[in-house]
Amino acid sequence: MPISGQSQLPAILREHQRDILAEWMRLQLASVATRRELISESDLQRESSEFLNALIRAADSGGANRTDLSGSSWQQVREILERISRTRAQLGFSPSETATFVFSLKQPIFDRLRREIMDATSLADETWSVTATLDALGLMTTESYQKRREAIITQQQQEMLELSTPVVTLWRGILALPLIGTLDSARTQIVMESLLQRIVETGSLIAVLDITGVPTVDTLVAQHLLKTVAAARLMGADCIISGIRPQIAQTIVHLGVDLNSVTTKATLADAFAIALTRLGLGVTTVASHPKPAVPDSASPA
Amino acid sequence: MERIPILKMGAFLLVSIQVDMHDQLAMQLQDDLTNRIAETGAHGVLIDISALEIVDSFIGRMLGNIAAMSRVLDAHTVVVGMRPAVAITLVELGMSLAGVRTALNVEQGMDMLSASADAAAGRGNVHVNN
């Protein structure tokens, strides 16, 4: 007979570990939550038995503070759960599917407890403590899943930022910065830094900011653009803003944004032409060169 | 007491700031530079800040002030070689140094001063001819 107040749970778990694991596996495989295409049965078996082992060890050594999951005896369980949630987040499991991994363990343990403990009061106590523990562990999986997802999102954001701010050299001394997508503070900062860095590296006198790909220009975006222009001017380079679409021109005037201090052009070609003029260069047609073929004339009539 | 050297190159003065500016040094430079402009009758001042890594609003204002004072003494000021981080800091501080002319490096700054000196000389001749 167990002493009153001491949990029978660790003993029961240890004794029937094999049965509980088999039952748990059956439930997991049967439930829709198990995505066979994402994880193999052997992997699931391995993860499940690893987790159950750690859980039993923790329940064994935990004693009184079994519900305190931050303790050192639960260290291994936490690590295993975090690892499982991380990999599942990467494999494309949903949060509820990930949490079900833990929650589906409830039924086999409850069944076992009901069969082993006859006394109604202690059965209720044990059930409650198992529920509390597994709920906390389930929440933990969701939390680590979330963290992993957030890390993935941050990483993708970073990659997008790097992709979307190329500084190209149009000619010796002329840089162009084709901006694509919405400009927010973080992006503008990166745009500004990479542009200024390239100005230093190439010794360019003129930079063309092309905003053809910027869907909307509000006061904040305009302010960001003006800041970039001001910073480039401080370093000794002139900025030209090009690619201003008619709607954007209207918006800028309606918003009362003052772009008088900046040279603005409708197209990148115009901006390039004025940049060449400022450097004392020009584009001429070579008289002897044959005219470029028009596609229509090449096709048979 | 350390000072920032002011070098005379023809009709221009060259100031190269190679140390981190502190407020006392900036005040001293302002004093020295205005004196030298008055003494030499220089028509242009070139301030090289390519070694300056840290600026605050005081240094920013000092650069603006030096430019304005030189202007009063009939000398153009060109600030050259500002680092990207410094430019961003100044813009974020809301100081775009509106009255100051800038160039990427000393060579371009010198060209700029020569061009404006030539233009001034040209105007002067026209004035004399009249």
Write a brief caption for the model.
The complex is a heterodimer of chains A (301) and B (130). Chain A contains 12 helices and 5 strands.
CATH topology heading of the largest domain in chain A: Globin-like
Number of domains of chain A: 2
Question: What is the strand tally of chain A?
Answer: 5
Q: Tell me about the biggest sheet of chain A?
A: 5 strands, mixed
- Class from secondary-structure proportions of chain A: alpha/beta
Indicate the CATH topology of chain B.
Transcription Regulator spoIIAA
In what range is the share of β-strand residues of chain B? 15-25%
> How many helical stretches of chain A?
12
Low-confidence stretches of chain A: 1-5, 297-301
Question: What ranges of chain B have pLDDT less than 50 throughout 5 or more consecutive residues?
Answer: 126-130
Helix content of chain B: 40-55%
Structural class of chain B: alpha/beta
Order of helical and strand elements of chain A: HHHHHHHEEHEHEHEHH
- Number of distinct helices of chain B: 4
The share of residues in helices of chain A is 55-70%
Q: Based on the coordinates given, report the CATH architecture of chain B.
A: 2-Layer Sandwich
Overall mean confidence score, pLDDT of chain A: 83
For the biggest β-sheet of chain A, the strand order reads 1-2-3-4-5
